[in-house]
Amino acid sequence: MCGLKTPEEFFGYKPGSDRELVRWEKVVGYFRHLAENSDRIRVEDRGESTMGNPMILAYISSEENLARLGELRDESWAISHPRDLPGEEAERIIAEGRAVVGLKMSIHASEVGGARRVEA
After folding, report:
1. Which residue, 41, 82, 106, 110, has most beta carbons within 10 Å?
2. Residues 95 and 55 in one domain
């Protein structure tokens, strides 16, 4: 792990610890740190929230999958909208495709830690 810091090293405490909250700008900073120090993580800026905070999209996968991300995205779209997808192409995508898992972090006004509760 060349230069990669654990969340605890980066934030200075274990995320989820009592009386400790990871602020959004630090979460974004950590994802950027991971992307800068790993060939398995890509971070894209997707704009700003209504309060001017960065909204990011992070891809975590193998180097090979990240290199063909556009193709994998197109195949995922095709298999989830199969109306005009030939049967043999659908079978190929199913056999060769990759599982995609999406996690969305959000927070409501009355909550204090939406992004910090994801733990390994």
Report:
1. 41
2. no
Please state, in angstroms and rounded to a whole number, the distance separating the CA atoms of residues 6 and 18. Answer: 18
Give the closest residue to 117 by CA, choosing from 109, 108, 106, 80. Answer: 106
Instruction: Say if 15 falls within a structural domain.
Output: yes
Give the whole-angstrom CA distance, residue 77 versus residue 115: 27
Using CA atoms, how far residue 77 sits from 12, 37, 63, 85, 97, in Å, is 40, 30, 21, 11, 11
For tokens 């950027």, what's the residue? Answer: 32
Q: Which stretch of 22-26, 37-41, 57-61, 84-88 has the lowest confidence by average pLDDT?
A: 22-26
Residues 31, 15 share a domain: yes
Cβ neighbours of residue 114 closer than 8 Å, sequence gap 6 or more: 105, 106, 107, 108
- Confirm whether 16 is domain-assigned: yes
